């Protein structure tokens, strides 16, 4: 029997005991279970059968067909219902828990490959819902085989409603209980977060996106109905508001769980299948369109002095956008395309545009909808730093990695014994890369499609080119400006000390053990120095005159210009530093000539000339 096959399959003593009991463990039995289950499902999906009559080539209609009675039509409906009942029994029989898992796997594969339209055509709407309920609430919670779990999740992903923000009337299967069932959500969430098999986790993550989409669609459709319906009774209005609040609260929790999985799965270090699943889940969920309400025009809005917090749903939407930006720079073309189309749809852009063009347009939309919020300001600071330094003050001091600590309460330097940390450690690690020649042609980057400075320059442009206080609040820009000045000072001292060490080694050994043109001519050190200068340039243009004066005092006290000159910056890094220095000095209200102010620095070092004379800090956006 099938149950005996499941219980006693195996080799050695298990096979002998099974043979004594009269149970077959032959490989042919496995093949029989697989083929019989698949064949029964394929036959059940055949709505015409082998007796289907070919249509008349000339389109003539016989008298018998034209005079068909109502009884014949009723008989045809009864026959169709009988066929659909037989099809449903065939599906449920092939998916029985007592059958070998090969039978369930083959049946689920047949249902998944057939698609939703064929299954609905073979069963009808009511029986299709019964089959979907059986798979979601009976089969999936108890299934232990990875192949069956994955195919059941993939089938449910096809059967779950989509198009969260569609304008036309909702389909009948949009608000099915299975799509909004808390039990189904818990089962799928457990598989997506705790299952040991990676392919099962990926399939569950994609299905979670569809389930979140169904919840968001219900929340937004109810909100639209409430806005359009105003002449209702007070008690019914209160009851509807209570139900809407429950739905919104449940949707917020589900969105938060999915966004956490997508954010973790979007990292470049994750496997390809995981990143693709994160992209598909993000596209299925439509979270990217859950923007906060649009603000009034700039002329009618007072500039805020404190950042406004986001609602939990909008905060999750912003995190989802950060994952989308990362996935749009993925090395896999399929991953980029899926996310780019979803971002273009949410940002009302061109779905056929190049991925980088979609990224730029999407970033501008995100800036316009999330500006002056605490979460967006933290995102801007994170994009500018790139994780190379922590923008938050710790105990009022900033360490430079060489024993020098700059106090945040004054502009003087204090020294104490400390370990290397902050910006200096990643910068020293990057400089060490320039000392190693691994091969004639250096290895290709792990993700050659990603441009590390693109998002940083997009964030810098949003801060610098918007009117003061439009993107980030002025207190935020002033605080980050002083931090950026100190981080630039740390970078200058670190590079100066490293250059002095190399010069000593060169004089001793007779050769220069460094990168041609200096360490900042190498991509790794340049990225860090450029980010520090880019942050200084952006925040200087958004801060007040008093903050720029304090930042300039930090640069003078720390002798940043002299340190960078001694460090022998490369041409591009030197141009980035001069642009940042000019932004700090040029906006200072003095009696100097407006044309000379941008070229006057903290020292008498001449301004950049030559190919970098027209250097743009956001050079990737030109």
From TrEMBL:
InterPro entries: ARM-type_fold (IPR016024), tRNA_methyltransferase_THADA (IPR051954). GO terms for cellular component: cytosol. Residues 399-424 are annotated as: Disordered. GO terms for biological process: tRNA methylation. Residues 403-412 have a biased composition (Low complexity). Coiled coil: none annotated. PANTHER family: DUF2428 DOMAIN-CONTAINING PROTEIN (PTHR14387:SF0), THADA/DEATH RECEPTOR INTERACTING PROTEIN (PTHR14387). This is Uncharacterized protein. It comes from Micromonas pusilla (Picoplanktonic green alga).
